[in-house]
Amino acid sequence: MLSVSEAQSRVTDLVSAARRAGADAADALYICDASTDVRIRLGQLEDVGRAEGEEIGLRLFVGRRSASVSSSDLSAAALAALIDQAHAMAREAPEDRYAGLAPEDRLMTGPVDDLDLDDHAEPEPAALRAAALAAEDAARAVSGVTNSEGAGASASRTRIALATSHGFAGAYGTSGYGLSASVLAGTGGGMQRDYAYHSTRHLADLDAPQSIGRLAGERAVRRLDPGKLASAPMPVVFDPRVAPGMIGHLIGAITGSAVSRKTSFLLDALDTQVFDSAITIVDDPHRRRGLRSRAFDGEGLATGARSLIDRGVLTGWLMDSASARQLGLDPTGHAMRGTSGPPGVGTSNVHMLPGSLTPQALIADIKLGVYVTELIGMGVNGVTGDYSRGASGYLIEHGEITGPVAEITIAGNLRDMFRALTPADDLVFRYATNTPTLRIDGMTVAGG
């Protein structure tokens, strides 16, 4: 695998070559990754996979016309052909008055911050196999577990480099580790499945295999013999495993592209109260060892922490340069991209600040409600905010979580759901997007 400095040289050389060949402007993105995955099922090795690859992408501008091309062949001849291909495509492309590189005065300057994203560990496949086996053994040891879908362990290393023809060049490396287990409990038509997993940047931060396996087994057993639920309006409480989806719907609605196309249910909500005043949601790309941390975005702009929601108020849109030009605003450092196309928009490490109540106190006054641990389907309308999804989880009766329920539907409108949302105090930074346990009153629940 190339070093970070070598990766940066790859993209700066390609951009320079594109300019010498006559491009008015260009940028290039290089991604190199190597990963090892081990799968275990019923105590036996099921699969070992090793993948290595590198790809470089070039975006080239001729006036307001542009084209994006990519190649996994990084030989001198292939890169020369890549430039020629990009030129030919750009000359035939339609003009786009919003196209172009990011504003030069907004580019990140200085060295790339060290966000501690790479621990440089390279565990052997045998160590990954032992971890997966230990996780599955722990899950299968839970009384009531009757079968296994398997356990897996993975390790990866990545190099990312970006350069633009107007002065930006940066690169960084990451490592990544994952461990998961999925098992079944019960027999016949009454079998229930559940899982547990953990992903980290540093191997030392990964949960113990026994903890992951035991949690998967206990979750599966707890879901046995689900009951029925009569249809009615009631409070719905979202487990931290699924609660981040609420933030995902918010992010989809505040991207510049959705706003410029007028396809967002929050189109008229800028600088208004969208959530209760107790709610603040933060995007923090500089969290050390964060799963989506980065010092610069996909166009070379400096990144920084910002509140997407500040005490309930929507503070702004998330924009790359193209969508910012469409809206007559400035880009926000949220450009995301792959090697084969222009930038889009995405967030980094997002979290909702915790509330003041424990999860137990949050549900204490609920006479009848649902605690959701799994969501099914994608029944969300981004234009209207209408929300309807299949779900399963547990009954809440008289302030206590009781028996499991399955095959229910929860419905509402995201505008109403956001305003009715209350967070607990149990925020843990475990995923790329993190929330505490969330309660939303007044949702419509349809029983199975």
Automatic annotation (TrEMBL):
Metalloprotease TldD/E N-terminal domain segment(s): 35-90
Q: Which InterPro entries match?
A: Metalloprtase-TldD/E_C, Metalloprtase-TldD/E_cen_dom, Metalloprtase-TldD/E_N, PmbA, TldD/PmbA_N, TldD/PmbA_sf
- Which GO terms of the molecular function aspect are on file? metallopeptidase activity
GO CC annotation: cytosol
**GO annotation, biological process:** proteolysis
Residue span(s) of domain Metalloprotease TldD/E C-terminal: 233-447
Gene3D superfamilies assigned to the protein according to its UniProt record, in alphabetical order: PmbA/TldD superfamily (3.30.2290.10)
Q: Where does the Metalloprotease TldD/E central domain lie?
A: 121-224
Q: Give the family, as the similarity comment puts it.
A: Belongs to the peptidase U62 family.
Q: Which PANTHER family match?
A: METALLOPROTEASE PMBA (PTHR43421)
Instruction: Please identify the protein, giving its name as recorded.
Output: Modulator protein
